Amino acid sequence: MISLIYDRTEGDVREARVFRASGRNIAERLKGCYDHIDRNRVGQAVNELATWMRNNGYRTNAHGFIGWQKDSLVTRELGEEMLDSVAAVRRDLVVFPDTPQLPPTLFKMNHNDANALERILASMQTMTEWIEWSRNLYFSDITFHG
Fold first, then answer.
1. Within a 10 A sphere around the Cβ of 143, how many other Cβ atoms?
2. Rounded to an integer, what distance in angstroms lies between the CA atom of residue 107 and that of residue 53?
3. S-S: 12 plus which of 32, 61, 70, 79, CB 3.0-4.6 Å?
4. How far apart (Å, rounded) are the C-alpha atoms in residues 10 and 54?
5. Tell me, what's the pLDDT at 54?
6. What mean pLDDT is reported for the chain?
7. How many other C-beta atoms lie within 10 A of the C-beta of residue 44?
8. pLDDT surpasses 60 at 144
9. Quick one: average pLDDT of 65-89?
10. Cα 53–chain centre separation
11. Under 8 Å between Cβ of 47 and 25
12. Is residue 103 predicted with pLDDT exceeding 80?
C-alpha cells in the first residue's frame, strides 16, 4: 500500500511559505505544501483500497483520479470528485471509531484538513491489513483442521 502523510504541522506550512517566498527551487518535497503529487497520492490510495475491496467481496464504485499535473487547477468539480472518491471507500468499508471525518472542501484546506484526508485512507489501509491478518490467522490455525 502507498505511504500516506498525516502528520503535517503548522511549522511545516510556515517552512513551505518561507521557501516559496524566497523564490528558491524546492529540491526536496515539503510536507507543508499540498499539490499535484499529494492529490495523485490520495487518488492512488483510493484506487488501491477499492481494488482490494472488490477483490475481497466488497461492493464499491470508488475511483480515485490520478491525472493531476503540476499546473492542474483544482476546480470545485475536481475537488468534490476527489472528496467523493475518499467518501465512497470510507462508506463501503468499516472504519475505526477515531477515523476522522472528511474535510468539507479542498478550497482553503489547512494542514489539519490535509492530515484528515490522508489519515482516513491510512486508517482504512490498517483495517484491510487487520482483515488479512485475521483471515490468515483463522485459516492457518491447526485447531481448525481436525
1. 5
2. 29
3. 32
4. 37
5. 96
6. 87
7. 17
8. no
9. 90
10. 15
11. no
12. yes
Grid cell at residue 30: 515539503
Report the pLDDT value the prediction gives residue 135, as an integer from 0 to 100: 74
pLDDT at residue 8 above 90? Answer: yes
Q: Judge whether 121 and 88 are in contact, CB under 8 Å.
A: no
Taking a C-beta distance cutoff of 8 angstroms, is the pair 31, 12 a contact? Answer: yes
Rg (CA), the chain: 18
For cell 468539480, what's the residue?
77
What amino acid occupies position 126? T
Q: Which of 79, 93, 92, 43 is nearest to 63 (CA)?
A: 43
Cell of 16: 513551505
For 48, the grid coordinates are 488501491
Nearest to 126, CA basis, from 102, 101, 93, 103: 93
Q: What single-letter amino acid sits at 14?
A: R
What are the domain boundaries of the chain? Answer: 10-145
Instruction: Give the amino acid at 2.
Output: I
**pTM score:** 0.86
Q: What is the per-residue burial (b if ≥16 Cβ within 10 Å, else e) of 47-84?
A: bbbbebbeeeebebebebbeebeeeeebeeebbeebbe
Q: Averaged over 24-51, what is the pLDDT?
A: 85
